[in-house]
Amino acid sequence: MSDVEDLLTAVREAARPATWTQGLNLSRSGAVAISSRSGDSVDLRVRVPSRPVAFNVSLYPGDEDWECDCPGKLDPCDHVVAAAIALGQDAKDGPAAKPLVQAAERWSRVVYRFAREPGGGLSLTRALTDPEGGDLKPLQGTLQSMVARPAQAARLQVEQWDLIADRLLERPHRGALPPERLERLLTVLENSREVLLDGEPVALASEPIFPHAVIEDRGDQLQLTIRRDPRIIEVVSAGVGLTRDSLALLGETQIAGTWLQNLPITRSYPQNQLAELSGKV
Question: N or C, where is the chain less crowded by C-beta within 10 Å?
Fold first, then answer.
């Protein structure tokens, strides 16, 4: 038997009969799609009708082990059962095989399109991917209204951050986003891989970028210079900088300015203030 067959047998033996039936029905309904494969694991998404966000299931065929991020107490749960059955069918040869579909090829995802505004700042529109590879389609209205319609919800792969961002964007806004709302959005969307800046993919940094402080010995004086982090190539909005490949919140803006307009800052101190300079200033 193959590792996948061994895993499926282990799941079936461990699952309660009712759980196995529920998982079998989920698998037959097309609720399972593959997210990624690595050397020893397969990550899958399992959709259930009552929940807009698909569960994450990880299967480890070589170890006959599994994980699911659902809050259920049963182990294995029906989501693991569905994923194991779908993976078993994917591994078969010939007419009995049912290849697993990539999640991106089954469900639409929300894409966040940031754009520079002529007067400064960033605007935001949202779009939906086309699983068949077509152009992005503008998201009309709110995501919550789509999720509330079963026919539309069945075609969406929604993440928790999408729902939180949707609440932040309930009040439409034209032009550049207010800095406070933009900061919250960038924090919420940190894990999203569907973010564009002027049409180009961009990551969201997980940590703020702070100015650099440099102390130089100038004889009887110590010179302190505060300058922007060299990774910042552009300030695209108040409190938001652009590096080579990511958008990042800016730290210590009360000193540097929200557009880093106060930098560089240079101050001199006598040598006898070294302790105060290094420990306090």
Answer: N
246 - beta bridge partners?
A: 203
Token code pair at residue 244: 């080579």
What pLDDT digit, counting tens, does each position of 128-180 carry?
Answer: 999 988 999 999 889 999 999 988 888 899 999 999 999 999 888 889 999 99
From residue 275, give the alpha-carbon distance in Å to each of 226, 267, 269, 279.
18, 16, 11, 6
Task: Read off the tokens for 139.
Answer: 């998201």
Q: Under a CB-based contact definition with an 8 Å cutoff, are residues 270 and 217 in contact?
A: no
> Crossing angle for the helix pair 78-91 and 3-14, nearest 10 degrees?
150
Q: Assign 3-class secondary structure to 62-90.
A: HHCEEEECCCCCCCCCHHHHHHHHHHHHH
* pLDDT tens digit sequence for 102-128: 999 999 999 999 999 999 999 999 999
If you average pLDDT over residues 6-14, what whole number do you get?
96
Q: Are 27 and 44 in contact (CB under 8 A)?
A: no
User: Rounded to an integer, what distance in angstroms lies between the CA atom of residue 228 and that of residue 270?
Assistant: 24
Radius of gyration of the chain (CA): 25
- Residues contacting 226, CB < 8 A, separation 6+: 211, 212, 213, 214, 255, 256, 263, 264, 265, 266
List CB contacts of 180: < 8 A, sequence separation 6 or more. none
Chain center to CA of 197: 15
